[in-house]
Amino acid sequence: MQIHSTVAVLPNDNIDTDQIIPARFLKTISKEGLGDQLFFDWRYNADGSPKADFVLNTPAAKASRVLLAGDNFGCGSSREHAPWALTQYGLQAVLSTSFADIFKQNSLKNRLLPIVMPKEAHTALFAALAENPALAVTIDLPAQTMTWPGGPVVEFPIDAFAKDCLLQGVDEIGYVLKQDTAIAAFEAKRSFSLNTLI
Amino acid sequence: MPSNKPRTIIEKIWDRHIVAQREGAPAVLFIDLHLVHEVTSPQAFSGLRERGVKVRRPDLTFATVDHSTPTTPRNLPIVDQVAAAQVAQLEKNAQEFGIPYFGFQDRNQGIVHVIGPEQGLTQPGMTVVCGDSHTATHGAFGALAFGIGTSEVEMVLATQCLLQRPSKTFEVNVEGTLKPGVSAKDIILALCAKIGIGGGTGCVFEFTGSAIRSLSMEERMTVCNMSIEAGARAGLIAPDEKTYEYIKGRKFAPQGEAWEQAVAFWKTLPTDEGATYDHSVRIDADTLEPMITFGTNPGMGMAISGTVPDPAAQQDPLERESLRKALRYMNLEAGQPIAGQKIDVVFIGSCTNSRMTDLRAAASVLAGRKVNPGVRMMVVPGSQEIKRQAEAEGLDRVFREAGAEWREAGCSMCIAMNGDQLSPGQYSVSTSNRNFEGRQGKGGRTFLASPLTAAASAVAGVVTDVRSL
Ligand code: SF4
Hints:
The complex is a heterodimer of chains A (198) and B (469).
Chain A: E1 2-10, H1 17-20, H2 40-43, H3 59-62, E2 66-69, H4 81-89, E3 93-96, H5 101-108, E4 113-116, H6 119-131, E5 136-140, E6 145-147, E7 154-155, H7 160-168, H8 172-177, H9 180-189
Parallel strand pairs in A: 1-2, 2-3, 3-4
Antiparallel strand pairs in A: 1-5, 5-6, 6-7
Chain B: H1 9-16, E1 18-20, E2 27-30, E3 33-36, H2 42-51, E4 61-64, H3 81-97, E5 101-102, H4 112-118, E6 127-130, E7 144-147, H5 150-159, E8 161-164, E9 168-175, H6 184-195, E10 203-208, H7 210-213, H8 217-225, E11 234-236, H9 241-247, H10 256-266, E12 279-284, E13 291-293, E14 301-303, H11 317-330, E15 345-348, H12 356-366, E16 376-379, H13 384-393, H14 395-402, E17 405-406, E18 427-430, E19 445-448, H15 451-460
Parallel strand pairs in B: 3-4, 3-6, 4-5, 6-7, 9-10, 9-12, 10-11, 15-16, 15-18, 16-17, 18-19
Antiparallel strand pairs in B: 1-2, 2-8, 13-14
Helix pairs in contact in B: 2-5, 6-8, 12-14, 12-15
Residues 66-67, 111, 113, 132, 134, 350-351, 411, 414-415, 432-433 of chain B line the site of iron/sulfur cluster (SF4).
């Protein structure tokens, strides 16, 4: 899995999932149509027209597969609608110095790479993009590296199991379903049931 | 697994729930209690149907509706058709998969994190999950409880297990005695302000110390509830006599001999002498002041006597810009005192502060006083059971006579999905847990605070220290 793409830049720290997809769009019972609602309150005017100066409305960002954000991306609500909206918009990776735990898990399950960058490289990339907004980065998942012209080779961490699942297309639920014998053995050791309602 | 090494309660619960552990892979962790609500579950049930699998343990699963549900009288239908469809979908899913369900009109309906403990479902030593980041609330009982995403909801429904790596352990030690006017909410807001909204990322908190021990179970829930707001996926408090006393006799609590066995087990849970944590922080309860947030995340908080910080004083350029942006959104000036700021709405409710202790605290301030005519005050109990209890105590009368609205149970203005919301530009003092932009309605501005501070502010019409009333 290699991504070669220009970068959309959203330089805010602590971008929370309420911004990524506001709660009023969570009344849906499907996963469809969330891409248009991504960052809704930052992206559209009161009359529903797109704000021309918001980064995700620019043609350049629309062509990007990678989003660069400030520290601690994806904090707050556990809504998986956030990675659903980001991927439906067309993103395949988010770059930050850190990600909130649940968001990170949710992203990996939706083929959205949460790439944790060292602070220095993160700052350097912001600077490089300020100079050349058309700069493209290359993300190499098997090698766990990211590079850009004139920049360092940035190694990023990723959970080894999640990486295997991504590269080999393993279905995690299927993986656990296959461990039925172990689960049944565990259950047999503890005859524990809460409900008397059913 | 080395059994003689002193362990924290977090490690003890973790170890007991490992079903399988393959080299290099995350543990398959057994889940004792899975709570389900209407917003994060529909796509998970669709997934089960596509796979053709059943819910493995409907007897360890429990569903209710809270987020999309109106807080208007229950004999009225749900007007919002999209919300109504979502509520109907959960009802259908619960029926089809055989899951116990407290529906919209059930007398036990309520916010999922309020009814779990109320029904005695939440017990010490359990692993508890829910597709909701405030699942940490259940940690107040010494359970390892954390929020999960919808894919994980599907996994737990299908297998009763979760793929998980252990978190780091983080001790939050709170020693001393809280002053009058200072409450559990102020402890957790102080923690968020101290370590920041990402401070606990990758960790589970254990709250320890004399100030935590002296809190009631309801107050402990308030503290654990907001663990996620300091970045931790879970936060817990070791069980003690107060915990057992709270659980005893509740609907799903163990009975008779099973009760004795359960208590004996629960007593083995507290952290061993000599166990170590990966991180720790200390909060001095004696010097704690009532806290309030001024910005657009829960870490942007300060003592209510303080002044709004100046972005120019921030070293890091991104942080400086974030603070500037927050103050612009809140329309606040650097250096202005937060007390005295005019407000439009006061919200008492949410899984953080909607239980009896919270309602009593708010009522104690409102008794014999009036809500300022410029303020709309909403009081939303966390469950229908709490609503009945509060009415039996006459708290509803105190609220109504003061000029506040007394409503039906649900998440309400904590997340503004059900029609209860701020208008653009309005300010609220809210006992909920998030002050993100638009959290309480598009363009709305939120000050997070305790029920005492919220009620005092309702009376004065401006942000007010309850001790100055
Ligand atoms: S009250 Fe608020 S925080 Fe709690 S479960 Fe409901 S929406 Fe989430």
